[in-house]
Specification:
Strand content: 35-45%
Number of helices: 3
CATH architecture: Roll
Radius of gyration: 15 Å
Distance between the termini: 29 Å
Shape: globular
CATH class: Alpha Beta
CATH topology: 2,3-Dihydroxybiphenyl 1,2-Dioxygenase, domain 1
Number of strands: 8
């Protein structure tokens, strides 16, 4: 068995597709009526579809999970975040751990937690 994809829920799939393309370079592989598969195994699911599947209301910005990306030039990436057309909500600005890794945490437009770090 292998993990194939990670699914996150969004209120606005078009906004989320743009966010993940503009900031992370992810491209759409498949777009089928509110179920969008992006490169790198990320799936965007329309909130209404997801709620009908699980039979429960979606709770955004719950901090129960995180998408983790690695970036070599993290300072340039943070400049992209700072200059993004819609303000990004930070959990923590760029920081460096005692072991040398640099990380930044923030929310996507739907409150999904994201961490971007260096590979160190």
């Amino acid at each position: 068995m292998r993990l194939k994809n990670v699914l996150i829920v969004t209120e606005d799939t078009e906004r989320s597709k743009k966010f993940y393309k503009d900031l992370f370079g992810l491209e759409v592989i498949s777009d089928k009526n509110g179920n969008i598969i992006l490169t790198e195994g990320l799936v965007l699911q329309d909130k209404n579809i997801w709620e009908s599947v699980v039979g429960a209301e979606v709770v955004f910005q719950n901090n129960a999970s995180e998408l983790y990306f690695e970036e070599r030039n993290i300072e340039e990436f943070v400049r992209k975040l700072d200059n993004y057309e819609n303000p990004v909500v930070y959990v923590n600005k760029l920081t460096q751990h005692s072991w040398g890794q640099k990380v930044v945490r923030f929310y996507d437009p739907d409150g999904n937690l994201i961490e971007v770090g260096t590979s160190e």
